[in-house]
Amino acid sequence: MSLFKLRGTLSKSQSLILGLIGFILLIAVWWLVAELKSENQPIIENFNSRLESTLGMDSTRAAIYADSIATADSIAFSQATEFQKVYPVLPRPDHVLASFSDLYQKDKLATNTWRSIWLNLQGYFWAVLISIILGFFIGLIPFLRGLFSKQVEAMRYLPLTALIGLFIIWFGIGDGMKIAFLAFGIIVYLLPVVIQRIDEVEDVYLKTVFTLGATDWQTIKTVYIPSVMSKLIDDIRVLTAISWTYIIIVEYINKDGGIGALIWIKQRQGQKASMFAILIIIILIGFFQDRIFQYIDKRVFPHKYYKTTLTGIKETQYGIYAILGIMIIALFVSSSFFTSNILPVFLITGLIGILYGEFRIFQNRKIVG
Q1: Are 185 and 161 in contact (CB under 8 A)?
Q2: pTM over 0.85
């Protein structure tokens, strides 16, 4: 059977069924572990399920203090008549789902989520822009490659979290610092990849344009940029997970908003169910970001996936370019009028272009099929 054959393929129905079974198994194991690690806590006043910190006490005093609390709790536990089940290690899945309501109503989950997404997009934009510009200069000009290629390679080994103090000194503790740190965290990985992708451009294309008498700029425009960008979008997708890791780190600094700050607050409050709910939100955002990058890759670089030109692909591309363009403009314009009035109009216009293009692609495939 192909189900157990090395590198065997699955049909769509098999993938769907197995994926559903795997999800159910995950939830079942999660629920089982939560129940196994649960505890019965007495419903009694002044009961301490966890000892308070003895940090700063001498060892003798700390031992007496801890022993007295443990003794008092043991007595309270033995005299209790009512108990409630608690989950100190792992919350149950249904408790996590129930926590979304409070997160949305009391903790402004939607607002904090959008804030983190917007920070992520800004950091991504500057990282990609800077990496592409510097990468092309260093990768194409031997003089610059000789000067900076070793330093670029060495940047990968920087302990980025140790640099937060420097970024605070340089940019303060506001959003500017967070965006700069996110961008730098992506640049150290993306810049060497841009140079590597330039080296991977096949000689046959370079020889062809040389034979046709292309100038350096024509060679860059017709060979290097399409070849590098068609591969680079896969590398950008991979870095999505890294960017969300850095968001959690930088939003901890002043905790003035964002789901990174929110998860730290819930950790301090011991609300494990809410922490898991926020983690699920981050996973879902990363999943959808990955799917969006996949879609853009297929539509902007269709030659990677299709042997013929798709009818409607131009309309889809124009819609994608319109949305990306207006989002880039929004990074530089802070006017509330622009963001509240013009931005939605352009986004809707771009979305209409994408939908129209997708409709034409679907109709063409239906006719061909």
Answers
A1: no
A2: no
Q: What is the CA radius of gyration of the chain?
A: 27
Do 347 and 288 belong together in one domain? no
Tokens of residue 247, six digits: 């968001």
Which residues is 85 bridged to in the sheet?
40
- Round to whole Å and give the CA distance between 37 and 87: 7
Pairing of strands 83-86, 39-42: antiparallel
Q: Is 266 among the domain residues? A: yes
Q: Are residues 296 and 310 in the same domain?
A: no
Structurally, how many domains does the chain consist of? Answer: 4
Question: Rounded to the nearest 5°, which phi and psi values hold at 42?
Answer: -70, 140
Query: Could you read off the pLDDT of 317-360 as tens digits, one per residue?
Result: 899 888 888 878 777 775 554 555 677 777 888 889 889 888 88
Query: Residue 154 is part of which domain span?
Result: 101-300
User: Quick one: 22 and 165 in the same domain?
Assistant: no
Q: What is the pLDDT of residues 136-158, one digit of tens each?
A: 999 999 899 888 888 888 888 88
Q: Which residue has the higher pLDDT, 320 or 308?
A: 320
